[in-house]
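Researcher: Final request for today, and then I'll write up notes for the group meeting. The sequence and the SMILES for NAP follow.
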Amino acid sequence: MNAPVENSPVESRLTAVVAISQTGVIGRDGDMPWRLSSDLRRFKSLTMGGVLIMGRKTFDSIGRPLPGRRTIVITRQADWSSAGVEVAATPEAAIELAGQTPAFVVGGAEIYRQLIDRCEEVFLTRVLCNVEGDTHLELDVADFSVLEQSRIPAGPKDDYPTEFFRLVRHRKSTP
Ligand SMILES: NC(=O)c1ccc[n+]([C@@H]2O[C@H](COP(=O)([O-])OP(=O)(O)OC[C@H]3O[C@@H](n4cnc5c(N)ncnc54)[C@H](OP(=O)(O)O)[C@@H]3O)[C@@H](O)[C@H]2O)c1
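Model: Predicted protein-NAP complex:
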C-alpha cells in the first residue's frame, strides 16, 4: 500500500527549481551561463506568492529580492543582511522560517545539494547546450517520476532551446 511522504504539519512542501545544461553546468562566474527569457517567465509564474530559499552567492547574483515573493538567504555570516530579505543560518532554519508558505529551493549548487532530498517536487529545465561553466549539479532523477514534460524551442530572447520537466518524488511505501 502506498502512503504519502510524511511532512511536519508546520512545514511547507519544498520544490526545487533548477536549470541544468546537458553537461551538468548551472553557473559561471557567479551568474547564469545563458540568457533564457522564456525560462525566467516560467520561473516567475511558478514561484509567485511563495518563498524563495537561496544561498548567499545566488542572492548576490540576483542582487535584490524578487517582487511578489519572500526571499530567504542562507549564510554563515552572522552579520549579513540586505533590505527585504530574511536570513537563515542553516538550510534547516530556512525551512522553518518559510513556515507554511509554498517554498522553492532556487540554488545554487551548494544549497541544492543540501536540500534536494527534502524536495517533493523539482521543476527542471534542461538547457539543450554544452556551455562551459564553473558550477555543476548532478541531479539524481531516479527518485522522481515525470509528471509533465515539454520541449520549448528557443524564442528570440533565448540562447538555447530547453526541455522542461515537472518531477514528483515517488511515494514511500509503508513497511
Ligand atoms: N541554473 C540554475 O538554475 C541556477 C540557480 C541558482 C544559482 N545558479 C548559479 O549557481 C552559482 C552559485 O552557486 P554556489 O553553489 O556557488 O553558491 P550558493 O549555493 O548560491 O551559495 C553558497 C553560499 O550559501 C551559504 N551556505 C551554503 N551552505 C550553508 C550552510 N549549510 N549553512 C549556512 N550557509 C550556507 C554560504 O554563504 P556565506 O559564504 O555567506 O556564508 C555559501 O557561500 C551562480 O553561478 C548562480 O548563477 C544557477
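Model: The first helix runs from residue 37 to 47. The beta strands are 14-21, 25-27, 51-55, 70-74, 86-88, 103-105, 121-127, 135-136, 144-152, 162-169.
Researcher: Thanks, that's everything.
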